């Protein structure tokens, strides 16, 4: 029994090595769809960045300093992913966003111009937006994985973790 399993495993390894030596399973596919998904995702990230900075600038109340610093940290993290995201689209031969108008047209997250939100309402909105962003990224992850785009898939895994952490911090701050 053990010998049969070892032989089957060896055959499997040989098959994988043979496919790899001919470049099979190594082709990146669905670049157009992946590029479009990255462009939309980048628009969402910029929208969330602006909303986070908006609330950072307009934060008030008892825990002002703590919330102000938390949102600055989160905005910095969001902005840090924009260049790698756009450059990844370019590396796979796809365009990325070219204008503010294009970003506004593509984004899925709502903007906010509200002037009367409490600190808790701001944090609750950002909590929900970060959860939505993580969900959008998971959908994109499925696409990149199916398209054999290992590099983008890997980046998305890190960004999903960051979005979930931001949502977790915001949720725990407002008692969710």
TrEMBL record:
Position of the signal peptide: none
CDD domains to which the protein is assigned, alphabetical: DPS (cd01043)
Gene3D superfamilies reported in the protein's UniProt record: 1.20.1260.10
SUPFAM superfamilies: Ferritin-like (SSF47240)
GO terms, molecular function: ferric iron binding
Listed Pfam families: Ferritin
Ferritin/DPS domain span: 36-175
InterPro entries attached to this UniProt entry: DPS_DNA-bd, Ferritin-like, Ferritin-like_SF, Ferritin_DPS_dom
Family to which this protein belongs: Belongs to the Dps family.
Protein name: DNA starvation/stationary phase protection protein
Species this protein is from: Pseudomonas luteola
């Amino acid at each position: 029994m053990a010998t049969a399993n070892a032989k089957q495993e060896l055959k499997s390894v040989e098959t994988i090595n043979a496919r790899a030596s001919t470049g099979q399973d190594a082709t990146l596919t669905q670049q157009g769809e992946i590029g479009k998904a990255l462009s939309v995702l980048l628009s969402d990230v910029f929208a969330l960045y602006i909303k986070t900075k908006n609330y950072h600038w307009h934060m008030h109340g008892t825990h002002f300093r703590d919330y102000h610093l938390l949102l600055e940290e989160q905005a910095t993290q969001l902005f840090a992913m924009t260049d790698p995201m756009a450059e990844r689209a370019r590396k796979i031969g796809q365009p990325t966003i070219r204008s503010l108008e294009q970003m506004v047209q593509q984004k899925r997250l709502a903007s906010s111009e509200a002037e009367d939100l409490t600190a808790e309402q701001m944090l609750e909105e950002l909590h929900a937006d970060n959860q939505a962003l993580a969900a959008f990224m998971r959908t994109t992850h499925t696409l990149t994985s199916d398209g054999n785009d290992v590099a983008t898939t890997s980046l998305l895994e890190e960004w999903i973790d960051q979005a979930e952490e931001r949502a977790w911090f915001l949720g725990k701050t407002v008692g969710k």
